[in-house]
Specification:
The protein is α/β, with parallel strands linked by helices and 154 residues long. It is built from six helices and six strands; from the N terminus they run βαβαβααβαββα. β4, α5 and β5 form a beta-alpha-beta unit. It starts with a strand and ends with a helix. The structure holds flavin mononucleotide.
């Protein structure tokens, strides 16, 4: 069984709705389970112990939410322990800018995680299409985590 961490922040529920769609996609894959956590209740240990991770944040001033950035700051010293984990990102904004997504994807790169697919940018209330895209993202992430778990480590 692989565990996919869905780590997100949300104040007014939009990013949370996207996170739930990611969870649905993860759990549609046999052998994968999702652990969903709002980032202010998560620990660096959640990051270390998972097999893959999806990061979700609202767009705040063209960047990820501060609480999400703070999580990455705290995790920096554990960078070696999370390197290589499959990862994706998703964001919600009042506008259509992909700047918050890019900020999360830069973290994926800084932590040397494996970006497995382009992320989702949702504008306003998540549409059916946004939710479908997140579900697909969760499914793709879980499949990659399973593949990686099957390769013996030396
Ligand atoms: C402090 C703050 C800053 C924001 N800055 C932006 C921004 O720069 N660009 C944008 O498109 N939306 C911005 N928004 C709007 C939110 O990103 C948007 O309402 C989002 O869907 C909220 O997600 P949530 O429901 O998960 O909290 C901002 C909202 C807040 C509260």
């Amino acid at each position: 069984m692989v565990e996919v961490l869905v780590l997100y922040y949300s104040r007014t529920g939009r990013t949370e709705a996207l996170a739930k769609a990611i969870v649905e996609g993860v759990e549609s894959v046999e052998g994968a389970s999702a652990k969903v956590k709002r980032v202010d209740y998560a620990t660096v240990n959640d990051f270390i112990s998972c097999d893959a991770v999806a990061f979700g944040s609202p767009n705040y001033f063209s960047y990820m939410a501060g609480v999400m950035k703070d999580f990455f700051d705290k995790a920096l010293s554990m960078r070696e322990r999370v390197a290589g984990k499959p990862s994706v990102a998703f964001t919600s904004g009042g506008g259509s800018s992909n700047s918050a997504l890019l900020s999360l994807e830069r973290m994926i790169s800084s932590f040397r995680l494996e970006k497995v697919a382009d992320g989702v940018v949702s504008q306003g209330e998540p549409s059916e299409e946004n939710l479908r895209a997140c579900k697909k993202l969760g499914e793709t992430l879980a499949k990659r985590a399973l593949e990686r778990a099957e390769v013996p480590k030396d």
